Amino acid sequence: MAIRKRPPDSWSSPVVMNPSSPCEGQSPEGDPPDDWFHLSTMSLGTHGSDGSQDDPEEPEEKGRLKSKLVSAWNNVKYGWSFKSKARFSKTSPLTMLGQSYLLSHGVERECFRRAFATLLWLTYRRGFPQLDGSSLTTDSGWGCMLRSGQMLLAQGLLLHLLPPGWTWLSANHVSKDDMEVQESRSLGPEVTKKGRRKSIVSFLESRTEVTHRRVVSWFGDHPIAPFGLHQLVEQGTSSGKKAGDWYGPSIVAHILRKAVDAASSEVSNLTVYVAQDCAVYIDDVVRLCERPLSEGSTGPSPAWKSVIILVPVRLGGEVLNPTYIKCVKNLLRLECCIGIIGGKPKHSLFFVGYQDEQLLCLDPHYSQSTVDITQDNFPLESFHCKCPRKISFSRMDPSCTIGFYAKSQKEFELLCSAVSTALSSSTERYPIFTIAEGQGQDGGQEDESDAPPNSVTHILTKDKARLRRTNNSNSMDEFVLL
After folding, report:
1. Tell me, what's the pLDDT at 9?
2. What does the pLDDT read at residue 44?
3. Which backbone phi and psi does 449 adopt, to 5 degrees?
4. Active site residue 384
5. Are 470 and 44 in contact (CB under 8 A)?
6. Active site residue 173
7. SS3 state of residue 102
8. Whether the Cβ atoms of residue 113 and residue 373 lie closer than 8 Å to each other
9. Which residues have a Cβ under 8 Å from the Cβ of 323 and sit 6 or more positions away?
10. What mean pLDDT comes out for the span 435-441?
11. Active site residue 365
Protein backbone atom coordinates (compact mmCIF):
# COMPACT_ATOMS: atom_id res chain seq x y z
CA MET A 1 0.00 0.00 0.00
CA ALA A 2 1.37 3.42 -0.90
CA ILE A 3 1.87 5.86 1.91
CA ARG A 4 0.90 9.38 0.92
CA LYS A 5 2.42 12.14 2.96
CA ARG A 6 2.80 15.85 2.60
CA PRO A 7 4.54 16.85 -0.64
CA PRO A 8 8.04 18.10 0.09
CA ASP A 9 8.72 21.74 -0.61
CA SER A 10 11.36 21.60 -3.31
CA TRP A 11 11.54 25.39 -3.47
CA SER A 12 13.27 26.13 -0.20
CA SER A 13 16.90 26.49 -1.27
CA PRO A 14 17.92 29.62 -3.18
CA VAL A 15 19.27 29.47 -6.71
CA VAL A 16 20.01 31.99 -9.43
CA MET A 17 17.12 32.48 -11.87
CA ASN A 18 16.97 33.92 -15.33
CA PRO A 19 14.70 36.97 -15.74
CA SER A 20 11.38 36.25 -17.34
CA SER A 21 7.87 37.66 -17.14
CA PRO A 22 4.56 37.69 -19.01
CA CYS A 23 5.26 41.09 -20.49
CA GLU A 24 8.95 41.41 -20.03
CA GLY A 25 11.79 39.26 -21.26
CA GLN A 26 15.53 39.55 -21.42
CA SER A 27 17.15 42.54 -23.05
CA PRO A 28 17.54 42.41 -26.86
CA GLU A 29 21.27 42.08 -26.40
CA GLY A 30 20.81 39.09 -24.05
CA ASP A 31 21.40 38.63 -20.34
CA PRO A 32 24.65 39.62 -18.69
CA PRO A 33 27.04 36.66 -18.60
CA ASP A 34 26.65 34.32 -15.65
CA ASP A 35 30.09 35.13 -14.29
CA TRP A 36 29.11 38.82 -14.04
CA PHE A 37 26.40 37.90 -11.52
CA HIS A 38 28.65 35.55 -9.57
CA LEU A 39 31.49 38.06 -9.44
CA SER A 40 29.16 40.78 -8.26
CA THR A 41 27.74 38.70 -5.42
CA MET A 42 30.36 36.19 -4.35
CA SER A 43 31.64 38.59 -1.70
CA LEU A 44 28.17 39.71 -0.67
CA GLY A 45 26.82 36.52 0.90
CA THR A 46 23.92 34.31 -0.16
CA HIS A 47 21.60 35.33 -3.03
CA GLY A 48 18.41 36.69 -1.54
CA SER A 49 20.11 37.52 1.79
CA ASP A 50 18.12 39.48 4.31
CA GLY A 51 21.21 41.23 5.56
CA SER A 52 22.25 38.60 8.10
CA GLN A 53 25.99 38.06 8.41
CA ASP A 54 27.89 34.98 7.32
CA ASP A 55 30.46 35.91 9.97
CA PRO A 56 28.88 36.39 13.43
CA GLU A 57 31.28 39.28 14.08
CA GLU A 58 30.56 41.04 10.81
CA PRO A 59 29.37 44.62 11.44
CA GLU A 60 25.64 45.21 11.01
CA GLU A 61 26.31 48.03 8.58
CA LYS A 62 28.19 45.68 6.26
CA GLY A 63 25.26 43.27 6.36
CA ARG A 64 22.91 46.06 5.26
CA LEU A 65 25.26 46.98 2.43
CA LYS A 66 25.31 43.37 1.22
CA SER A 67 21.52 43.26 1.22
CA LYS A 68 21.22 46.56 -0.65
CA LEU A 69 23.73 45.53 -3.32
CA VAL A 70 22.08 42.16 -3.92
CA SER A 71 18.64 43.82 -4.05
CA ALA A 72 19.94 46.44 -6.48
CA TRP A 73 21.30 43.71 -8.75
CA ASN A 74 18.02 41.78 -8.67
CA ASN A 75 16.06 44.93 -9.51
CA VAL A 76 18.19 45.33 -12.62
CA LYS A 77 18.10 41.61 -13.41
CA TYR A 78 14.29 41.45 -13.28
CA GLY A 79 13.58 44.91 -14.63
CA TRP A 80 14.20 44.56 -18.36
CA SER A 81 11.58 46.34 -20.47
CA PHE A 82 11.85 44.30 -23.66
CA LYS A 83 8.38 43.25 -24.84
CA SER A 84 7.68 39.74 -26.07
CA LYS A 85 4.66 38.64 -28.06
CA ALA A 86 2.16 35.91 -27.36
CA ARG A 87 1.80 33.03 -29.82
CA PHE A 88 -1.42 31.00 -29.80
CA SER A 89 -2.91 28.52 -32.22
CA LYS A 90 -6.13 29.57 -33.92
CA THR A 91 -7.26 26.01 -34.46
CA SER A 92 -6.91 24.55 -30.95
CA PRO A 93 -9.23 25.65 -28.12
CA LEU A 94 -7.62 27.58 -25.29
CA THR A 95 -8.83 26.81 -21.77
CA MET A 96 -8.52 29.29 -18.90
CA LEU A 97 -10.04 28.75 -15.45
CA GLY A 98 -13.06 26.80 -16.58
CA GLN A 99 -13.73 28.68 -19.81
CA SER A 100 -12.82 27.61 -23.33
CA TYR A 101 -12.03 30.00 -26.18
CA LEU A 102 -11.55 29.38 -29.89
CA LEU A 103 -9.23 32.19 -30.96
CA SER A 104 -10.11 31.97 -34.64
CA HIS A 105 -13.47 33.45 -33.65
CA GLY A 106 -13.16 37.20 -33.16
CA VAL A 107 -15.70 37.48 -30.35
CA GLU A 108 -14.19 34.60 -28.38
CA ARG A 109 -10.69 35.99 -28.89
CA GLU A 110 -11.82 39.32 -27.50
CA CYS A 111 -13.50 37.59 -24.55
CA PHE A 112 -10.26 35.77 -23.75
CA ARG A 113 -8.22 38.98 -24.00
CA ARG A 114 -10.53 40.76 -21.58
CA ALA A 115 -10.71 37.83 -19.17
CA PHE A 116 -6.92 37.51 -19.08
CA ALA A 117 -6.41 41.25 -18.57
CA THR A 118 -8.88 41.09 -15.67
CA LEU A 119 -6.71 38.64 -13.67
CA LEU A 120 -4.65 40.31 -10.96
CA TRP A 121 -0.94 40.28 -11.80
CA LEU A 122 1.29 40.58 -8.75
CA THR A 123 5.00 40.87 -9.40
CA TYR A 124 8.28 41.75 -7.76
CA ARG A 125 8.24 45.30 -6.38
CA ARG A 126 11.00 47.63 -5.27
CA GLY A 127 11.05 50.59 -2.93
CA PHE A 128 8.44 49.43 -0.42
CA PRO A 129 8.71 50.01 3.37
CA GLN A 130 11.40 47.89 4.97
CA LEU A 131 10.37 44.35 5.90
CA ASP A 132 10.49 43.53 9.61
CA GLY A 133 13.65 41.79 10.73
CA SER A 134 15.59 42.75 7.60
CA SER A 135 16.84 45.70 5.61
CA LEU A 136 15.04 44.55 2.45
CA THR A 137 12.86 47.00 0.53
CA THR A 138 12.33 44.69 -2.48
CA ASP A 139 11.47 41.04 -3.05
CA SER A 140 13.23 40.82 -6.41
CA GLY A 141 15.05 37.51 -6.67
CA TRP A 142 13.34 35.67 -3.79
CA GLY A 143 9.61 36.45 -3.48
CA CYS A 144 8.23 34.83 -6.65
CA MET A 145 6.34 32.03 -4.86
CA LEU A 146 4.72 34.51 -2.47
CA ARG A 147 3.65 36.59 -5.49
CA SER A 148 2.22 33.51 -7.21
CA GLY A 149 0.33 32.70 -4.00
CA GLN A 150 -1.02 36.24 -3.92
CA MET A 151 -2.36 35.81 -7.47
CA LEU A 152 -4.06 32.54 -6.53
CA LEU A 153 -5.72 34.13 -3.50
CA ALA A 154 -6.65 37.22 -5.51
CA GLN A 155 -8.52 35.09 -8.04
CA GLY A 156 -10.51 33.50 -5.22
CA LEU A 157 -11.33 36.92 -3.75
CA LEU A 158 -12.51 38.28 -7.10
CA LEU A 159 -14.89 35.31 -7.43
CA HIS A 160 -15.98 35.79 -3.82
CA LEU A 161 -16.73 39.51 -4.00
CA LEU A 162 -17.63 40.31 -7.62
CA PRO A 163 -20.48 39.09 -9.84
CA PRO A 164 -19.93 36.12 -12.18
CA GLY A 165 -18.39 37.10 -15.50
CA TRP A 166 -17.08 40.43 -14.20
CA THR A 167 -14.26 41.99 -16.22
CA TRP A 168 -12.11 44.99 -15.43
CA LEU A 169 -13.51 48.05 -17.20
CA SER A 170 -10.15 49.27 -18.44
CA ALA A 171 -9.56 45.90 -20.11
CA ASN A 172 -12.39 46.83 -22.50
CA HIS A 173 -10.61 49.90 -23.80
CA VAL A 174 -7.22 48.55 -24.82
CA SER A 175 -7.09 49.01 -28.57
CA LYS A 176 -4.29 46.53 -29.24
CA ASP A 177 -2.35 44.11 -27.09
CA ASP A 178 0.53 41.72 -27.59
CA MET A 179 -1.82 39.12 -29.07
CA GLU A 180 -2.32 41.61 -31.92
CA VAL A 181 -6.05 41.72 -31.23
CA GLN A 182 -7.69 44.73 -32.78
CA GLU A 183 -10.20 46.81 -30.86
CA SER A 184 -13.76 45.59 -31.23
CA ARG A 185 -17.13 46.80 -30.12
CA SER A 186 -18.33 46.20 -26.58
CA LEU A 187 -19.50 42.69 -25.77
CA GLY A 188 -21.57 43.69 -22.78
CA PRO A 189 -25.36 43.92 -22.71
CA GLU A 190 -26.78 46.50 -25.06
CA VAL A 191 -27.74 49.63 -23.17
CA THR A 192 -30.82 51.43 -24.39
CA LYS A 193 -30.95 55.17 -24.80
CA LYS A 194 -33.19 55.46 -21.81
CA GLY A 195 -31.43 57.34 -19.07
CA ARG A 196 -32.69 55.03 -16.34
CA ARG A 197 -31.07 51.94 -17.89
CA LYS A 198 -27.82 53.81 -18.40
CA SER A 199 -27.75 55.08 -14.86
CA ILE A 200 -28.32 51.56 -13.46
CA VAL A 201 -25.47 50.14 -15.55
CA SER A 202 -23.22 53.03 -14.55
CA PHE A 203 -24.05 52.52 -10.88
CA LEU A 204 -23.32 48.77 -11.02
CA GLU A 205 -20.05 49.38 -12.85
CA SER A 206 -19.05 51.95 -10.25
CA ARG A 207 -19.77 49.54 -7.40
CA THR A 208 -17.75 46.72 -8.94
CA GLU A 209 -14.81 49.02 -9.66
CA VAL A 210 -14.77 50.15 -6.02
CA THR A 211 -14.64 46.50 -4.94
CA HIS A 212 -11.95 45.75 -7.52
CA ARG A 213 -9.79 48.60 -6.23
CA ARG A 214 -10.29 47.46 -2.64
CA VAL A 215 -9.13 43.93 -3.49
CA VAL A 216 -6.03 45.30 -5.24
CA SER A 217 -5.23 47.42 -2.18
CA TRP A 218 -5.27 44.32 0.02
CA PHE A 219 -2.21 43.08 -1.91
CA GLY A 220 -0.28 46.35 -1.77
CA ASP A 221 3.31 46.39 -0.55
CA HIS A 222 2.54 48.17 2.69
CA PRO A 223 2.42 46.85 6.27
CA ILE A 224 -1.30 47.65 6.52
CA ALA A 225 -2.28 45.50 3.51
CA PRO A 226 -3.76 42.23 4.84
CA PHE A 227 -2.38 40.12 1.98
CA GLY A 228 0.65 42.24 1.11
CA LEU A 229 4.20 40.94 1.21
CA HIS A 230 4.79 42.33 4.72
CA GLN A 231 1.92 40.34 6.19
CA LEU A 232 2.76 37.15 4.29
CA VAL A 233 6.37 37.26 5.42
CA GLU A 234 5.20 37.75 9.00
CA GLN A 235 2.82 34.78 8.71
CA GLY A 236 5.69 32.67 7.38
CA THR A 237 7.79 33.07 10.53
CA SER A 238 5.86 30.25 12.24
CA SER A 239 7.04 27.96 9.43
CA GLY A 240 10.65 28.99 9.97
CA LYS A 241 10.77 31.42 7.04
CA LYS A 242 11.96 35.01 6.94
CA ALA A 243 12.31 37.82 4.42
CA GLY A 244 14.83 36.86 1.75
CA ASP A 245 14.19 33.10 2.03
CA TRP A 246 12.71 30.96 -0.69
CA TYR A 247 9.16 29.71 -0.14
CA GLY A 248 7.64 26.50 -1.49
CA PRO A 249 4.06 26.02 -2.76
CA SER A 250 3.04 23.98 0.29
CA ILE A 251 4.29 26.52 2.84
CA VAL A 252 2.66 29.33 0.86
CA ALA A 253 -0.68 27.51 1.04
CA HIS A 254 -0.51 27.57 4.84
CA ILE A 255 0.64 31.21 4.84
CA LEU A 256 -2.40 32.18 2.76
CA ARG A 257 -4.69 30.29 5.14
CA LYS A 258 -3.29 32.13 8.16
CA ALA A 259 -3.45 35.49 6.35
CA VAL A 260 -7.15 35.02 5.53
CA ASP A 261 -7.88 33.96 9.12
CA ALA A 262 -6.11 37.09 10.39
CA ALA A 263 -8.07 39.32 7.98
CA SER A 264 -11.56 38.14 8.96
CA SER A 265 -12.60 41.72 9.66
CA GLU A 266 -11.70 42.72 6.08
CA VAL A 267 -12.87 39.58 4.28
CA SER A 268 -16.03 38.24 5.83
CA ASN A 269 -17.72 34.93 5.13
CA LEU A 270 -14.59 33.29 3.70
CA THR A 271 -12.29 30.56 4.99
CA VAL A 272 -9.32 28.65 3.57
CA TYR A 273 -8.80 24.89 3.84
CA VAL A 274 -5.40 23.31 3.14
CA ALA A 275 -5.51 19.62 2.23
CA GLN A 276 -3.60 17.13 4.37
CA ASP A 277 -1.46 14.38 2.90
CA CYS A 278 -2.95 14.82 -0.58
CA ALA A 279 -6.52 14.39 0.68
CA VAL A 280 -9.42 16.82 1.04
CA TYR A 281 -11.49 15.61 4.01
CA ILE A 282 -15.12 16.58 3.51
CA ASP A 283 -16.04 16.66 7.20
CA ASP A 284 -13.14 19.01 7.92
CA VAL A 285 -14.27 21.41 5.19
CA VAL A 286 -17.86 21.29 6.46
CA ARG A 287 -16.67 22.03 9.98
CA LEU A 288 -14.77 25.08 8.74
CA CYS A 289 -17.61 26.38 6.59
CA GLU A 290 -20.60 25.85 8.85
CA ARG A 291 -21.36 28.85 11.04
CA PRO A 292 -23.72 28.64 14.00
CA LEU A 293 -26.94 30.54 13.53
CA SER A 294 -27.07 33.86 15.31
CA GLU A 295 -29.20 34.04 18.44
CA GLY A 296 -32.89 34.30 17.69
CA SER A 297 -32.55 33.30 14.02
CA THR A 298 -34.32 30.32 12.54
CA GLY A 299 -33.45 28.13 9.61
CA PRO A 300 -33.04 24.57 8.48
CA SER A 301 -29.26 24.54 8.77
CA PRO A 302 -26.32 26.69 9.89
CA ALA A 303 -25.11 29.47 7.63
CA TRP A 304 -22.25 28.59 5.29
CA LYS A 305 -18.92 30.31 4.66
CA SER A 306 -17.42 30.37 1.20
CA VAL A 307 -14.21 28.34 0.99
CA ILE A 308 -10.92 28.38 -0.88
CA ILE A 309 -9.44 24.88 -0.98
CA LEU A 310 -5.67 24.59 -1.47
CA VAL A 311 -4.16 21.21 -2.29
CA PRO A 312 -0.35 20.88 -2.14
CA VAL A 313 0.71 17.98 -4.37
CA ARG A 314 3.76 16.49 -6.02
CA LEU A 315 3.23 15.23 -9.55
CA GLY A 316 6.23 12.97 -9.93
CA GLY A 317 9.80 12.56 -8.79
CA GLU A 318 12.40 15.00 -10.06
CA VAL A 319 10.26 15.98 -13.06
CA LEU A 320 6.55 15.99 -13.87
CA ASN A 321 5.13 12.53 -14.46
CA PRO A 322 3.56 12.90 -17.94
CA THR A 323 0.67 10.60 -17.04
CA TYR A 324 -0.67 13.38 -14.79
CA ILE A 325 -0.91 15.94 -17.61
CA LYS A 326 -4.43 14.89 -18.65
CA CYS A 327 -5.60 15.20 -15.06
CA VAL A 328 -4.09 18.70 -14.69
CA LYS A 329 -5.89 19.74 -17.88
CA ASN A 330 -9.17 18.37 -16.55
CA LEU A 331 -8.78 20.35 -13.31
CA LEU A 332 -8.06 23.59 -15.19
CA ARG A 333 -11.26 23.03 -17.19
CA LEU A 334 -13.34 23.24 -14.01
CA GLU A 335 -15.08 26.52 -13.20
CA CYS A 336 -14.29 25.94 -9.52
CA CYS A 337 -10.53 25.88 -10.20
CA ILE A 338 -8.76 29.17 -9.41
CA GLY A 339 -5.33 28.17 -10.70
CA ILE A 340 -2.11 26.41 -9.77
CA ILE A 341 0.99 27.84 -8.12
CA GLY A 342 4.16 26.07 -9.13
CA GLY A 343 6.32 26.79 -12.13
CA LYS A 344 9.63 25.61 -13.41
CA PRO A 345 12.26 24.38 -10.93
CA LYS A 346 13.11 27.27 -8.59
CA HIS A 347 11.08 29.64 -10.78
CA SER A 348 7.52 30.14 -9.58
CA LEU A 349 4.63 30.82 -11.96
CA PHE A 350 0.85 31.07 -11.63
CA PHE A 351 -0.85 28.67 -14.05
CA VAL A 352 -4.35 29.60 -15.21
CA GLY A 353 -4.96 27.45 -18.27
CA TYR A 354 -3.52 25.59 -21.23
CA GLN A 355 -3.59 25.13 -24.98
CA ASP A 356 -2.48 21.80 -26.45
CA GLU A 357 0.68 20.81 -24.55
CA GLN A 358 1.45 24.31 -23.27
CA LEU A 359 0.45 25.82 -19.92
CA LEU A 360 -0.82 29.40 -19.79
CA CYS A 361 0.64 31.42 -16.95
CA LEU A 362 1.20 34.76 -15.26
CA ASP A 363 4.84 35.40 -14.35
CA PRO A 364 5.83 37.45 -11.28
CA HIS A 365 9.47 37.85 -12.38
CA TYR A 366 9.27 41.50 -13.36
CA SER A 367 10.43 44.19 -10.97
CA GLN A 368 8.13 47.21 -10.78
CA SER A 369 8.12 50.28 -8.57
CA THR A 370 5.91 50.07 -5.51
CA VAL A 371 2.46 51.65 -5.79
CA ASP A 372 1.26 53.59 -2.76
CA ILE A 373 -2.09 51.94 -2.10
CA THR A 374 -2.85 54.39 0.73
CA GLN A 375 -3.49 57.14 -1.84
CA ASP A 376 -6.95 57.68 -3.32
CA ASN A 377 -7.30 56.48 -6.90
CA PHE A 378 -3.87 54.88 -6.99
CA PRO A 379 -3.04 53.56 -10.51
CA LEU A 380 -4.25 50.03 -11.26
CA GLU A 381 -2.51 49.35 -14.58
CA SER A 382 0.59 47.69 -13.10
CA PHE A 383 -1.62 45.12 -11.34
CA HIS A 384 -2.95 43.73 -14.63
CA CYS A 385 -1.14 42.08 -17.51
CA LYS A 386 -2.18 41.85 -21.14
CA CYS A 387 0.68 39.59 -22.23
CA PRO A 388 0.08 35.85 -21.64
CA ARG A 389 3.03 33.50 -21.36
CA LYS A 390 3.29 29.75 -21.76
CA ILE A 391 5.61 26.89 -20.92
CA SER A 392 5.53 23.26 -21.93
CA PHE A 393 3.91 20.79 -19.52
CA SER A 394 7.15 18.80 -19.64
CA ARG A 395 9.00 21.68 -17.96
CA MET A 396 6.53 22.12 -15.11
CA ASP A 397 8.00 21.47 -11.67
CA PRO A 398 6.19 18.53 -10.01
CA SER A 399 5.79 20.40 -6.70
CA CYS A 400 2.74 22.67 -6.80
CA THR A 401 -0.47 23.75 -5.05
CA ILE A 402 -3.87 23.58 -6.79
CA GLY A 403 -6.64 26.00 -5.78
CA PHE A 404 -10.44 25.72 -5.85
CA TYR A 405 -13.29 28.00 -4.73
CA ALA A 406 -16.86 27.22 -3.65
CA LYS A 407 -19.22 30.05 -2.76
CA SER A 408 -21.97 27.98 -1.15
CA GLN A 409 -22.59 24.54 0.29
CA LYS A 410 -24.25 23.50 -2.97
CA GLU A 411 -21.20 24.66 -4.93
CA PHE A 412 -18.94 22.70 -2.57
CA GLU A 413 -20.95 19.54 -3.22
CA LEU A 414 -20.70 20.15 -6.97
CA LEU A 415 -16.97 20.82 -6.56
CA CYS A 416 -16.45 17.46 -4.86
CA SER A 417 -18.25 15.66 -7.65
CA ALA A 418 -16.52 17.52 -10.49
CA VAL A 419 -13.04 17.25 -9.00
CA SER A 420 -13.45 13.54 -8.25
CA THR A 421 -14.43 12.96 -11.87
CA ALA A 422 -11.43 14.94 -13.11
CA LEU A 423 -9.07 13.03 -10.82
CA SER A 424 -10.37 9.66 -12.00
CA SER A 425 -9.10 10.45 -15.50
CA SER A 426 -5.50 9.76 -14.49
CA THR A 427 -4.07 6.55 -15.90
CA GLU A 428 -1.98 6.20 -12.76
CA ARG A 429 -3.01 3.74 -10.09
CA TYR A 430 -2.90 6.56 -7.55
CA PRO A 431 -4.59 9.92 -8.31
CA ILE A 432 -3.00 13.32 -7.74
CA PHE A 433 -5.08 13.67 -4.57
CA THR A 434 -8.36 12.39 -3.23
CA ILE A 435 -11.60 13.78 -1.83
CA ALA A 436 -12.44 11.61 1.16
CA GLU A 437 -15.28 11.29 3.62
CA GLY A 438 -14.50 11.85 7.29
CA GLN A 439 -11.78 13.86 9.00
CA GLY A 440 -8.02 14.06 8.88
CA GLN A 441 -5.95 12.68 11.73
CA ASP A 442 -5.75 16.06 13.46
CA GLY A 443 -9.38 16.85 12.67
CA GLY A 444 -8.58 19.97 10.71
CA GLN A 445 -5.82 22.29 9.62
CA GLU A 446 -2.28 21.09 10.12
CA ASP A 447 0.37 23.80 10.24
CA GLU A 448 3.13 23.38 7.70
CA SER A 449 5.65 23.94 10.46
CA ASP A 450 4.37 20.76 12.16
CA ALA A 451 5.20 18.54 9.20
CA PRO A 452 8.33 16.41 9.34
CA PRO A 453 11.14 18.24 7.49
CA ASN A 454 11.92 15.26 5.28
CA SER A 455 8.37 14.12 4.55
CA VAL A 456 7.90 12.60 1.12
CA THR A 457 4.96 11.93 -1.14
CA HIS A 458 5.20 8.37 -2.47
CA ILE A 459 3.87 8.23 -6.03
CA LEU A 460 3.98 4.76 -7.50
CA THR A 461 4.16 4.19 -11.24
CA LYS A 462 3.95 1.04 -13.28
CA ASP A 463 6.94 2.14 -15.26
CA LYS A 464 9.51 4.27 -13.48
CA ALA A 465 11.04 5.11 -16.81
CA ARG A 466 8.08 7.38 -17.42
CA LEU A 467 9.61 9.80 -14.91
CA ARG A 468 12.04 10.74 -17.60
CA ARG A 469 14.26 13.75 -17.40
CA THR A 470 13.40 16.76 -19.48
CA ASN A 471 15.26 19.76 -20.78
CA ASN A 472 16.34 21.87 -17.80
CA SER A 473 16.55 25.08 -19.81
CA ASN A 474 15.24 28.09 -17.90
CA SER A 475 14.12 29.96 -21.02
CA MET A 476 10.42 30.37 -21.72
CA ASP A 477 8.62 30.00 -25.04
CA GLU A 478 7.36 33.22 -26.57
CA PHE A 479 4.41 33.31 -28.89
CA VAL A 480 2.14 35.41 -31.25
CA LEU A 481 -1.36 34.65 -32.54
CA LEU A 482 -0.88 32.67 -35.75
Report:
1. 60
2. 31
3. -70, -15
4. no
5. no
6. no
7. coil
8. no
9. 426, 427, 428, 461, 466
10. 88
11. yes
